[in-house]
């Protein structure tokens, strides 16, 4: 659809294109950073095409200036923008006509496979919830992110990073199912190791919902096709003990921002010390390649993109302050999830977990009661 | 008391000595690391003296081998040791006769001003609670730690780091009072800036107890003699926006361990990159001084020692894996708190906060009801 006016010879490529719906507005750096991200993305993925949502008179000239984007971008005009200060409840009521709403709407209609936005997280989750709706059986959707780690892939998956501020036992068990599915598809791990974040690894630690979730996950790990490693601590988040870290959105958000803050503190201290004397400045010049490789390994832009899990559609939330590199990373993630058919796989896992839960419940009931389940 | 046999001329110094009660057992590295920490401490503080608790037949020869400790250490025999695996409830019931119990008992009897232990945190808090008891009006004591930051002092204070796994509105407000008092004494700040940890700085973020605590702190900051800066995020913990970060013990523990894990990850990545090639190894040699200064700035041993606040006595919890440098840092902290009369200052702040709360409540009641308050 994005290339409707291309010559006949391109039709095959066009048919196979993967369409991503992108919100051009609402990020801290404005639409220019988003368009620059699109330019990087088309170079990397020949099959990618975009529906770009925002102010047409502002975006049109930007797109026209980029020959690489010719025929790859369809503009979808939306006059209004959701700002970082808008409250989610307001956007749910009055969000129609914003670029964010329009971006999600394209996924709902099936015109695009995955949506990407740098906008207000709470508003994006609210709009995604009311337009895409939750997968059957899911009470609380979650945001999953990659986290730099000592694992061979270089990353762990952690959720919930702040879709909601709390999670009960059922939610935590569903997060484990969804996080494992994301790790299977996003990190190519056949049987991910799942841990439950707590203040200690001993079984008596933590609140009641954590202990219950622990017992449920011990029993459920085989059905869920993951390995449950038990409670993990904050120090395990960047470790190679675990691939998926499950926690509530309050704790996940605090841990994520604490980790970002500490990594930045260490990097700033390193810079200060290398600037402290003429000798250390000379050493810094010699160590330039080394320091650049370090910077790349801890660069949060490389892992940019929280994924909303548990909805009838895939939404990637890019960091609000993402630059071209960050936007391109979020789009790469969206492309990979679209290409691998992630949503269908996730939905199948959630459905089969639901089924297993109903079967387990039915075993405790009279034999005749089992007929109520499907599959 | 530690120098009972010294000649007459030393009596004045002896009278002025500051006695610290130290648990020699229960740390991961055993009593040798603790004794090595004492040796570092006596060199730094001429007035310091120790009551050292543990197995006499093991400790006696160790002390005898260190001339610097002659006349500065009184051994207090305790046959049993609390291990890292003992549950707090068990230790509360059966802990008498352990070195940990004996260490706290010396503070209760007034023989020492501050206690230091590298042992099991949960057990140490449990023993401290039942032997020292809570300050009047305190429901949940807290553990406060220093955190490396961009502030001129190089540190922030954060609490609760895991004394309990939850905190209600009253607890959070008391943590603010106690944390501000600790920052005044430990960081020499006349009017500390206090922030409440949340998932965003906007007023509508977070759960009900956070919103209520926010409103209470806005009203209470002048009486409490601190500046309340509102909600802060995980990324603000190592910043210069705030001096005291208030949160519940579950979140505080996760944030602390996440920060430690991320700092270690970055340091390990840096080491790997400097070892990657001959050239980078040469650069590392040139940058040796710079890297050592960085290591010192982020060395967690420098800030070793969580302080239990809200009890009738001061207890410093050293990291379980502390070496001589770490133990000496915990003892330095204990010494400074003893010397400054911190416990009396903290108790006075808590009492005046209680009074202010009662006064505020009384204003809402009939005039005659005010007579019930003291002071």
Automatic annotation (TrEMBL), chains A, B:
**What is the annotated signal peptide range for this record?**
none
In short, the EC number is 2.3.1.274
- GO cellular component terms given for this protein: cytoplasm
Keyword annotations from UniProtKB, A to Z: Acyltransferase, Cytoplasm, Lipid biosynthesis, Lipid metabolism, Phospholipid biosynthesis, Phospholipid metabolism, Transferase
Top enzyme category? transferase
Does the UniProt entry include the keyword Ion transport?
no
Q: Per its record, what are the GO molecular function terms?
A: phosphate:acyl-[acyl carrier protein] acyltransferase activity
GO biological-process terms attached to the record: fatty acid biosynthetic process; phospholipid biosynthetic process
**What pathway, per the record?**
Lipid metabolism; phospholipid metabolism
Its UniProt entry gives the catalysed reaction(s) as: a fatty acyl-[ACP] + phosphate = an acyl phosphate + holo-[ACP]
Q: Which compartment or compartments is the protein found in?
A: Cytoplasm
Instruction: Name the protein family.
Output: Belongs to the PlsX family.
What functional role does this protein have?
Answer: Catalyzes the reversible formation of acyl-phosphate (acyl-PO(4)) from acyl-[acyl-carrier-protein] (acyl-ACP). This enzyme utilizes acyl-ACP as fatty acyl donor, but not acyl-CoA.
On assembly, the entry states:
Homodimer. Probably interacts with PlsY.
Return the protein name. Phosphate acyltransferase
């Amino acid at each position: 659809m994005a290339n409707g006016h291309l010559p006949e010879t391109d039709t095959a490529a066009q048919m196979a294109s993967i369409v991503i719906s992108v919100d051009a507005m609402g990020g801290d750096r404005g639409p220019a950073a988003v368009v620059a991200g699109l330019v990087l993305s088309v170079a990397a993925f020949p099959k990618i095409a975009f529906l770009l949502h925002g102010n047409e008179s502002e975006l049109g000239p930007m797109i026209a200036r980029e020959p690489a984007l010719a025929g790859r971008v369809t503009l979808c005009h939306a006059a209004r923008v959701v700002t970082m200060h808008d409250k989610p409840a307001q956007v749910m009521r009055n969000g129609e006509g914003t670029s964010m709403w329009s971006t999600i709407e394209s996924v709902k209609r099936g015109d695009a496979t995955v949506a990407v936005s740098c906008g207000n997280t709470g508003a994006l989750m609210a709009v995604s919830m009311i337009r895409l709706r939750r997968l059957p059986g899911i009470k609380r959707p979650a945001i999953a992110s990659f986290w730099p780690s000592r694992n061979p892939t270089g990353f762990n998956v952690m959720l919930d990073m702040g879709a909601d501020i709390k999670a009960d036992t059922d939610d935590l068990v569903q997060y484990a199912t969804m996080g494992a599915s994301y790790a299977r598809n996003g990190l190519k791990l056949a049987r991910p190791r799942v841990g439950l974040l707590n203040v200690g690894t001993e079984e008596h630690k933590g609140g009641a919902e954590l202990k219950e979730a622990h017992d449920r996950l011990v029993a459920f790990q085989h059905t869920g096709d993951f390995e449950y490693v038990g409670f993990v601590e904050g120090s395990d988040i960047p470790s190679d003990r675990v691939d998926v870290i499950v926690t509530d959105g309050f704790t996940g958000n605090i841990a994520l921002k604490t980790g970002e803050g500490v990594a930045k503190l260490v990097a700033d201290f390193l810079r200060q010390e290398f600037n402290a004397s003429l000798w250390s400045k000379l050493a810094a010049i010699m160590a330039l390649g080394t320091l650049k490789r370090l910077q790349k390994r801890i660069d949060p832009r490389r892992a940019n993109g929280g994924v909303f899990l548990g909805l009838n559609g895939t939404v990637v939330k890019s960091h609000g302050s993402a630059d071209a590199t960050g936007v391109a990373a979020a789009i790469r993630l969206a492309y990979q999830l679209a290409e691998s058919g992630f949503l269908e796989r996730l939905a199948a896992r959630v459905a089969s977990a639901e089924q297993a839960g109903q079967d387990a419940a039915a075993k405790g009931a009279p034999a005749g009661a089992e007929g109520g389940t499907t599959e």
